[in-house]
Amino acid sequence: MVYAFSTDSLILLVHKFITQSLGGIYTVIQTKAKITVDEWGENLFMMGPYYEHNINTQVEKCEPSNPAIKKAMGALTENGCPVYFGRWLIEGSPYVILFDTKAAAWNVDRWKGDLWDTCGIGLPFHDIEANDSLIFGSMVAWFFKELTDQLGDSPNVLAHFHEWQAGAGLILCRSRKIPIASIFTTHATLLGRYLCAGNVDFYNNLDKIYHRYCLERAAAHCAHVFTTVSQITAVEATHMLHRKPDVVTPNGLNIRKFSAMHEFQNLHSTNKGRIQEFIRGHFYGHLDFNLQKTLFFFIAGRYEFSNKGADIFLESLSRLNYLLRVHKSDVTVVVFFIMPAKTNNYNIETLKGQAVRKQLWDTAHTVKEKFGTRLYEALLKGDLPDMNTILDRDDFTIMKRAIYATQRHSLPPVTTHNMLDDASDPILANIRRIGLFNARVDRVKVLFHPEFLSSASPLLPMDYEEFVRGCHLGVFPSYYEPWGYTPGECTVMGIPSVTTNLSGFGCFMEEHVSDPTAYGIYIVDRRFRSAEESCNQLTQFMFGFCQQSRRQRIIQRNRTERLSDLLDWRYLGRFYMHARSLALSRAFPEKFWMEPLAPPQGFRYPRPGSVPPSPSASVHSTPHHSDEEDGDEEELYDEDEEAKRDRQNIKAPFSLGPTPDQVPDHPTSPYIALLY
């Protein structure tokens, strides 16, 4: 066992999107803040650009208590480059240091010259994002110079830079020999993102991305420690950036935010009921399928049609529809596409559907109240009510009018909004190609919701978390996904999901779970199989899921939710601890030491003791009612016993180092990193 000690070292996390809610990287930094604050306390500072519209709502401004930080900020401010300080109002309340890049933009030409003289990288004037990144990086490097001059030899400074937008600061710090330990993390390589984007003329756009690539590659090579978020991205970075990552730091979640203990099954039932209400309105006049035997699938995320796997998903849905029809299944699948696209308003037909549903509900309640009053009065008199007279002609007229109002001469729409570019929209174009128009004979119904969910929506008033809890399966067959938070969020909420071995999450689960399918993690092979084979595999996964009984789905959700501990920052945070300790030992070898051991290793979550609820082992070869329970297929399943075994399996491999309260006291400083 090895400990590395320091004299109150400072750690500064540098990222362009601090306080700016954009993408999965923001989720990483925000959710990890609490455990990082617990580890470093008042010695943790996050650094990012100053965005006034975000600061007013997310940051509580205050004065820094550290005199060295205060003097370094003052040096920049006095020279016309304002710097702000405060607490970020998220869990953990970390300190933030924010640089006003707009106010400092008058230096951009001089700083471009410095970058060129330093490493021969030139930035074109038309690339605003790259120029802003240089301004930010130059201010960060300047700040570190002032800070280390104030601190002297102690305490030591550890700087963690995220993504190429922060790379300029790292490059300038190393070229100026500023005494800091540095880590550079890429969450996805720039070339990888660009090459996997659809409809991109790569060669004619090289001049727009080459300088960005140079910044990213230079930062990766300048850092004392280079990390990335998944094994698949590590392979990508090794080839694209020509440096093998020193540590893979998987992305985690703050599990407490999603924790519902044993309530998650009830939450699923409650939110499923709210989705069913929406379906009743949207499919009015065509509601000839049993909602109790209807499964809700969904895909969500940025509208990257190929990267997110929407192309293979749609093709698989067409094949799933064929299989369900051929086997005369009474299971219906309603599929939601939650991807933001350009729209101009809600679809009139969709709004009308919700209005018709509400009208029917009001009519039913009106008649019910009359019926109840007359029944009550008859019973008070001691008479048995005459069911032929308890409802009068007016009541039947009202009900008939309500029924006629549900008549519909068109199919339920496949999109909830009016699309600005309906003809060329990739999802709608493929829906036309495969012919899934929500016809009565279709067992797969499709709904494209081209904006993120909100509880204020007049159509589907649910937040994303509530919607996910109400669905049965999340499908994310991504082609390019360095990590993939959407299946991870499904997992911690107890909802099974489909992912791929080209996503960081899928690779992580393959590495750590012996039988992911039994735990509700279906991993499509898109790396070593052809597109046709991957499509067939995804179809079989979904078809098998449709074959499960209600009891099997409950068992599977229990198992899925127990994987939450795998994704908890309390466990995954130690990979970052290893990277920090490694950076300090390389930057200051005379003060910090580490045994040359490998990073903390993972473990294999064992296969459940009972028969897994997968089609190959626990269901018939043809679909059957989802709410039927056949006596001959009872599984040997003990929830408490399985849960106890799983908790032991996840905690035992991680008990390799002591917890913070077990770390031996040190006369002058807290511990920096403990592992092994």
Automatic annotation (TrEMBL):
SUPFAM superfamilies, A to Z: UDP-Glycosyltransferase/glycogen phosphorylase
Keywords: Allosteric enzyme, Glycogen biosynthesis, Glycosyltransferase, Phosphoprotein, Transferase
A GO MF label: alpha-1,4-glucan glucosyltransferase (UDP-glucose donor) activity
Biological process terms in GO annotation: glycogen biosynthetic process
Pathway where this protein functions: Glycan biosynthesis; glycogen biosynthesis
EC number: 2.4.1.11
InterPro entries: Glycogen_synth
Reactions listed under catalytic activity: [(1->4)-alpha-D-glucosyl](n) + UDP-alpha-D-glucose = [(1->4)-alpha-D-glucosyl](n+1) + UDP + H(+)
A Pfam entry, by short name: Glycogen_syn
Record field: compositional bias (Acidic residues): 628-641
Function field: Glycogen synthase participates in the glycogen biosynthetic process along with glycogenin and glycogen branching enzyme. Extends the primer composed of a few glucose units formed by glycogenin by adding new glucose units to it. In this context, glycogen synthase transfers the glycosyl residue from UDP-Glc to the non-reducing end of alpha-1,4-glucan. Transfers the glycosyl residue from UDP-Glc to the non-reducing end of alpha-1,4-glucan.
Protein name: Glycogen [starch] synthase
The organism of origin for this protein: Esox lucius
Lineage of producing organism: Eukaryota, Metazoa, Chordata, Craniata, Vertebrata
Gene transcribed to yield this protein: GYS2
